[in-house]
Write a structure and sequence with these properties.
- This protein is α/β, with parallel strands linked by helices and about 375 residues long.
- It has 2 domains: about 230 residues, FAD/NAD(P)-binding domain, CATH 3.50.50; about 120 residues, FAD/NAD(P)-binding domain.
- It is about 20% helix and about 20% strand.
- It is built from 9 helices and 17 strands.
- The strands form 4 sheets. Strands 1, 2, 3, 4, 5, 6 and 15 form a 7-stranded mixed beta sheet that branches.
- Helix 1 packs across helix 8 and helix 5 runs parallel beside helix 6.
- The mean pLDDT is about 95.
- The protein binds flavin-adenine dinucleotide.
- Flavin-adenine dinucleotide binds next to helix 1, strand 2, helix 2 and helix 7.
- The site of flavin-adenine dinucleotide has 34 residues, from helix 1, strand 2, helix 2 and helix 7.
Amino acid sequence: MLSQPQTLDALVIGAGPAGLGTALALAAVEDLTFGVLERGQIGQTFLDWPAKQTFLTPSFTGNGFGATDLNAIHPDTSPAYSLGVDYPTGPQYAKYLRSVAQHFRIPVLAGVEVTSVARHESGFEVQCTKGPVLARSLVWAGGEFHQPVEPRIVGSVLTERASSTEAWQPRTGNLVVIGGYESGIDIACHHVERGARVTVVDGSAPWKNGSGSDPSFRLAPRSRIRMSAALDSGRLSLVEAHATGVKRAGDEWAVSLGNGKKLLADSPPIAATGYGPGLGAVEAYFARREDGWPELDDDDQSTLAPGLFLSGPAIRHGGLKFCFVYKFRQRFAHIARVIGERAGTDVSGLESWRAAGMLTDDLSCCGVECAC
Ligand SMILES: Cc1cc2nc3c(=O)[nH]c(=O)nc-3n(C[C@H](O)[C@H](O)[C@H](O)COP(=O)(O)OP(=O)(O)OC[C@H]3O[C@@H](n4cnc5c(N)ncnc54)[C@H](O)[C@@H]3O)c2cc1C
């Protein structure tokens, strides 16, 4: 790819599910020139996941009946089928991503980090560790995993991030987890299942039922089942209060709470306080919404730099969050279609994505609640 001096129609940065999925959709458009740059290996984030972490969205081979595997990034693939598991580990999912890239011959250049991006009238000049690349459109798919949000509390440096390997090492005695949504409940159950006594603190109590059916706002059934077993063991406590500070207290860690109480832990508290949008080299090209997430137009394009698209879990439209694979994959083919139409090429190959339930153009249809 880099040996060619021409300007690509599209360049994708990041070879996770979002970047590869968008590249697969670009491959379905006639005559587009495109490529993917990846600083690590294909699926690097999943290779970096703590060993005990697994997907919480189940994989199942329903493709033949129009129910494409929730974790698939191409309509004709299924991690459940190729891996033979329903809740893939990180390395298993990375294997699926590698095999998809290989099967569909997606041009991925691995081991190449994008360090800066300049915008020109005709597109973008991307500087990477192998030199410059020119592209008319750019798709940022750098992911969120490299930008965990630290708790905004005094002593946050004393906490360990839930995404770190250390946080998953065996713990004895009392442990405090700050943050009670998926990652917090996941790691809390992990330690309860191995004998620790864990208190999860979160002022918004995400473990409660909530009003909607959207998994972006409600714990997944699998997490609820594990949480229920952990509560039955007597070693899990859920406290509806914000953590306000952490400090050392002799051999222990003291976590102060907004309700005036204090919890003592025998090892560093674990922060499961979410992830930022991870915009890296294109950060300056996105305006921000009031809630801090990138402002996008209806085509998932930057409002400041047309031609720059965002693919992946940081996509937000109104109150909709696209933070799971089965959600953000709805936009791969849409982005590819916008790029293809601008290039004046045939985009009809993307209709099979729509037929497989993997192309949403009209965002007003998202967010429907289950009746029961
Ligand atoms: C702990 C955790 C658990 C999750 N569990 C689920 C789940 O069960 N089901 C689900 O659907 N979703 C889940 N998600 C959400 C989502 O699926 C993942 O975040 C997923 O990794 C997002 O895919 P992505 O392609 O956007 O990012 P990533 O998989 O992180 O891929 C981004 C890639 O970009 C590369 N990159 C970054 N910057 C550069 C650069 N400057 N130059 C070149 N390359 C770069 C990285 O090396 C990486 O390979 C989870 C997220 C987290 C954090």
